[in-house]
Structure formats: C-alpha cells, structure tokens
Design a protein that fits this description.
alpha/beta; 28 strands; single chain; 3 domains; GMP Synthetase, Chain A, domain 3; five-stranded parallel β-sheet; Rossmann fold
C-alpha cells in the first residue's frame, strides 16, 4: 500500500462517527455500574472539547498533556487535541512528581488533562505553575472539568484534517536507563500502523478490546486506541485492580493484550484453585478436557479471545506452551516506541513459539555485524524531541538501531537473543547475555522477577524476587527447589554464562522504588547499583541459594 492510500486516525473517527453513530464505542465501569458512549455521543464531546482548545488561541502544534489511567476520556482527549491542531503528550499514570515535572518542562507542555490517578496528591507538585489544567468528570481536582468544557462550547462541525508529516504525539519512553526521551511521531506512523495492523490481524467492527495497560505505552496505543479506531471496534475499560477480573469477564474481549508478568499472574491464579497435577489429569480425559479449558478461560473472561497477544518483555516458552494446553494461543510480537510498535508479529495459526514473528507489511529488517536488529518502515519516529545527537546515534542509513540482538530463521521469523547494551563481561573476560538465562530461570512459579548480573565476577549470579507462591512456601522448600532449578538449567547454558548463585533479595522490586519502569521492565542499572557492593560477598558464600537481608536503598 502506498502512503497516499492510508487514512489518518481523524478520517477513521469521522467515518465511524457517521456510519456507526448509534453503536457504542466505549463501555466503562464507574461506582459499580456500567456506562457507555456511542460514536455519535463521543464525537459530540470530542468536537466540543476541540473547540475549547482552539479558543485558547495556542500556537498551532502546541503540546497538550494527558495524565490519567485508561478511560474513554483519555482517547477522546487525544482525538480532540488532534482536531484542534495540536500535539498530544501522554504521561504514565504512576510517575513521581519529579518525572512529571521533567516531562512537562522538557516538552513545553502548556495544557494538561488530569484524570483517574491513584497517587494524585504525590504527583500534583510536579506540575509547573504555568500549565493550565483540566480534569475528567470524576474526582474533584479543583480544575475546570470535561463536563463544563462540553457544556459551554458548541461542537466543531467541520471534519478537520491533519497531514501525514504533521506531528501527532510525543511519547516519552519509560526509561530503563537515564531520563525519559520524547519520541516524536507524525500522523503517518498512526496511519501506516493502523491500516496495516488492522488488516494483518483481520480486525473488524465486531471486535471487542479491553484497555488496562497504560495508553501512554506505545503497545496499548497501537493495539487498542489506533487499531480500535481503524476497525471501528468496541473498547471496554477496567475500573480498578480490585474489579479487574470481574470487568474482564463482562467485556469478554475478542482481542486481548497482556505483558508476560500478568500472563504469569493469571497462571498462578488458576493453579491456586486447580493444582498442576490435578489439571494434567483432567486434561488427559477427552470429554472432560474440553469442559475444563472452557471453564478456565470463561472464568478469566478470555473464552472469546481470538487474538491473545503479548509483548514489551521476553516471555518463557514454558508459559506459552502452558497456555496453549488450555486452548489459548498467545501471540508474541515485537516493536519499540521508536517504530510505533510496528515491526514483527506472530499470526494466528502461523505462530512460532520462541520467536516474535515475521516482519509486518512494509517492514525491512536487517542484522548488523554484531547481530543488532535494525528496522526501517514508514512508522519510524521523526526523532527524539530536542535531542538531535541522540537521534543521529539511533539511526544508521535510515534504519532504526533497536539495541536488541537477534537472529532470523529461513522463514523470516525473528528471535530476540538479548540487548546489545545489557552484555556484561565476567572476571574471566567472557561476555554474558542475561536475557536468555533469565527466561530459563523465570519458568519457576516461585519467581516473580529475575535479574542476571555479575560484571567482573568469575561467573554470573541471579538476583531473584519471589512470587506470592514463593513467599508462601517454607525457606527450606524454596531453597531446595531453586537448587534443583539451577542443576536443571545450567547444563543447557554455555559454561561461562552459568549462574553460580541464586540470590533471593529481601524487598520487592516495584515502580514505586524505581527498580521497574511503568511497563514493569527491570532497570538493570538500578539493580546493579543497589546490590553491587554485596556481589563479591555473596559469590564467596558456600551456599548456592542465598537469602539476602540487605534492604533496598533508593
């Protein structure tokens, strides 16, 4: 498909606003009951808020922020910002005040929409005094809210268009290292990914989405907001963590995206009610097997999911196979903020476990001499905002340097083998790629998070956060099982990469203590800086499994 044939997200909004005027586009729970908006109702509100933004007389292309958990107003704000001729700047809903201030200041954001947040009072001090704020219609935040804007503004009647080359959004990366970078995407990124992604996944107006991963993250922005907009589907939202499962069962999405950590939590929830040994027995009985699979998936709300996807972090082969045994094939994909998550995808009935899929339409991929994956397509960012040097560093002959290492098989399936920058060297002068080792270790239900480290040590060590299952077991039982795991996996790993010690750290790693990014990726530099001084002492201990009492120091 040539560039000229892509429709923009605004064109798609106008299309469904007219063709599906009376059909619901959003459904969300609030205070124990479900609410909905039709395309026509959503269009009316979007057009009124767009008029309010235009009346602010901001320079064309001004930056307008969105700070909220997922809700229909998030997506409507995004569209209203575009309709008003401006650029959206989404912020994760779980940032510190310092990071909020850094992003708003760096992006020159002058208007901010504030919505559902769990830690608003902690974030509020980070908002610069010259930023004009509006709020969504719940939770009194002391600002003029969405309802007021709609009440006092007439809707824009014309279907305002935006050009491909105009900037649509600046997405700040979650920042596994250093300060978040502002990734600039124009409307061509949305148009290319939306058109091609919707066709590739065969999405249609009858599809139902369930939005709960942050819309500020590019994967949710592409699959739920953009593809939802392009296929004309229905988007459900979760109210809270406490109501998540009930909300999911109500939505019964046909398209569902989750990250590996949550797929593991779902698995642990199932095994907590139906132990693996009993599950194995039931799945061997022909008639009972089908009933069990349907019951388990229906209990999660995933019995209608024809596309179940995962991304953002590596997922273990064991976990993928476990879910397939229950009748749910999880499709792994691959992408980055810098290419609008439009890169590689496994398709239904063509999946290859252990690989992140084949290149999507229009994607050119090559491997450098060091095995770095490099991508070129129409969805590449325009660059990092205010960072020309960093922008130049990440491009090579028009290709995006992903920083990921990989290999490509004869059928074009891509396997991620590690991160170029995650490599470290042992005291023996051997390089270690931690990601594949971490995948092998994380197959244990006792483990929530694992980080393989050991720069300068004779052999690597693995720092471990226990899962709820692990915390509920005795110390002796956990030690014995992890010793068995080490004995099982080490023969499958090159000798110089074999973990010598498993270190069970005392405190959980979280977004709040800055070890995890908002998308639950481990910040290796933070882990290493925190525990570095203990590495040699742990290594010299005779035990293979070590329980650390060291507190986490921010």
């Amino acid at each position: 498909m040539s560039t000229k044939e892509y429709r923009t997200p605004l064109e798609m909004f106008y299309k469904w606003e007219k063709e599906k005027a009376e059909s619901p586009v959003f459904k969300w729970p609030q205070d124990g009951s479900w609410h909905e908006l039709t395309w026509e109702q959503a269009g009316d509100q979007v057009r009124r808020v767009a008029k309010a933004l235009k009346d602010l007389d901001l320079p064309a292309g001004s930056h307008i922020g969105i700070l909220s958990k997922n809700c229909p107003y998030w997506i409507m704000t995004d569209i209203a910002i575009w309709m008003a001729g401006h650029v959206s700047v989404p912020l994760y809903p779980n940032l510190t005040a310092e990071t909020v201030n850094t992003i708003l200041t760096h992006s020159n954001t002058k208007v901010l929409f504030v919505g559902k947040l769990d830690g608003w009072e902690d974030m509020k001090p980070g908002i610069p005094s010259d930023v004009k704020c509006f709020s969504y219609p719940y939770g009194n935040k002391g600002y003029e809210d969405w309802t007021d804007l709609c009440a006092k503004n007439e809707p824009i009647t014309e279907n305002i268009q935006r050009e491909y080359e105009e900037v649509a959004t600046i997405i700040y990366t979650s920042g596994t290292t250093g300060v978040p970078k502002g990734v600039i995407h124009n409307f061509l990124s949305f148009s290319c990914a939306g058109e091609n992604g919707t066709k590739l996944a065969q999405l249609n107006p009858n599809d139902r989405f369930f939005s709960y991963l942050p819309l500020s993250h590019v994967a949710e922005r592409l699959l739920v907001e953009t593809c939802g907009l392009y296929c004309g589907g229905l988007i459900y939202f979760a109210e809270s963590l406490d109501t998540f499962v009930d909300n999911l069962k109500t939505a019964r999405p046909t398209v569902f995206l989750s990250v590996p950590r949550l797929w593991t939590k779902f698995q642990m929830g199932i095994l907590g009610k139906l132990p693996q040994k009993k599950l194995n027995t039931l799945l061997k009985i022909p008639f009972v097997s089908g009933l069990i699979k349907r019951k388990v998936l229906k209990g999660l709300g995933l019995d209608q999911a024809r596309i179940a996807a995962t991304g953002a972090a590596p997922i273990s082969l064991t976990l993928l196979e476990w879910w397939k045994s229950l009748g749910l094939t999880i499709l792994e994909g691959y992408g980055m903020t810098e290419n609008f998550a439009y890169s590689h995808l496994n398709l239904p009935n063509e999946e290859k476990f252990g690989f992140v899929g084949q290149a999507m339409p229009g994607v050119n991929v090559r491997l450098s001499d060091e095995g770095e994956i490099q991508i070129k397509n129409e969805c590449l960012m325009d660059g990092y905002y205010k960072e020309p040097v960093l922008t130049d560093e990440v491009f090579a002959d028009g290709y995006l340097r992903t920083g990921d290492q990989g290999s490509i098989d004869q059928n074009g399936y891509l396997k991620i083998t590690g991160r170029v920058k995650d490599l470290f060297k042992t005291g023996k002068g051997k390089y270690v790629v931690p990601s594949p080792i971490e995948l092998k270790i994380s197959k244990s239900s006792l483990i929530e998070q694992v980080c393989v480290a050991g720069n300068g040590l004779p052999q690597p060590i693995a720092l471990i956060n226990l899962s709820e299952d692990g915390k509920n077991r005795s110390k002796e039982e956990v030690t014995q099982e992890l010793q068995g795991l080490m004995s099982e996996i080490n023969p499958t790993i090159d000798h110089h990469e074999r973990p010598e010690k498993f270190i069970i750290v005392r405190d959980d790693w979280s977004v709040e203590n800055n070890v995890l990014t908002p998308t639950m990726k481990i910040k290796r530099n933070v882990v290493e800086k925190t525990y570095q001084e203990s590495f040699e002492g742990w290594y010299d201990t005779s035990s293979k499994v070590i329980w650390s009492d060291q507190p986490f120091l921010q």
